[in-house]
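Q: I have 323 residues here and want to know how they pack in 3D. Can you give me a structure?
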Amino acid sequence: MFDESNVIEWVAEFDPALRWQIMRDVDGAVESEWYPIRALVETEGLGARLLSLQDADGQWSGGAFFPPGFTGRQFQEEGQPWTTTTWALTQLREFGLDPKSARAREVVRLVGENSRWDNDGQPYWSGEVEECINGRTVADGAYFGVDVSPIVSRLVDESQPDGGWNCERCNGSSRSSFATTINVLEGLLEFERVTGGTTASRQARKGAEEYLLTRHLFRRASTGEPADEQFLALTYPTRWHYDVLRALDYFRAASRFERTPPDARLTEGIELVRSKRDEDGRWQLEWQPRGATLFNLDDGPGHASRWVTLRALRVLRWWDDQT
């Protein structure tokens, strides 16, 4: 039988980006205790390493979504690269870089001045055309203090009849996608946390939550079968991908923000995550999206992952404390 305190120590000792989140979300530490640890994200460990890789113009790998000159053939042979500005900004947010720090403000300024979307050269903080991309841009922008309300208004208008979103809407899709929906949900929640949101954005967020909840986070509404077996496999960083743990972590954050109890329809997802705990009390990285990275956060698929373990621990702590 494992000792959970040893598991928590194994996660927390590795990096400040993990340590402050364990303190807040698992140990229940107050802000005055975890905030000084979060401040170290800028100067130590993974956060400092990621910031050191920023280009002089404020981007990463020279582009917003793809590196310059990246070809369709490379995409087919190598997979999507995860080295550019959009992925770096999301990772800095998830590491917990202090959005009020001088370094964070400089990152935001340089990206706004110099980064342009691959789609049509749009300024970075004005968003792109795909809902999946715009959802993450809203989350990152709101977190770092950017006015992303115009993107939010567009996303609200682009929701599907069944409540969620789909990046293929512009190609005629009229049904939602699990992956696009979670990206937008995270963005709308962060926007609401920072600004209070709008009546329309709050309604859209609730409608999208219902889209996932009626499907118990991973089932087809039509047949009840898993919509995609990969939704049941845990990964981190999730990039644009969806899995059950990512959805549960969103609902945990929404519940804490709203001070509401967990929805019973999350039970199946919770028990799935609980069942994946290994004999040492940890969770493995079960798969990883193909493509180049700036650096790896874990030892790879098949090995225990501190990041997956952090997310699983805090979801289960929230659930067990509230139910």
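Q: Anything worth noting?
A: The radius of gyration is 19 Å. The chain has a mean pLDDT of 96.
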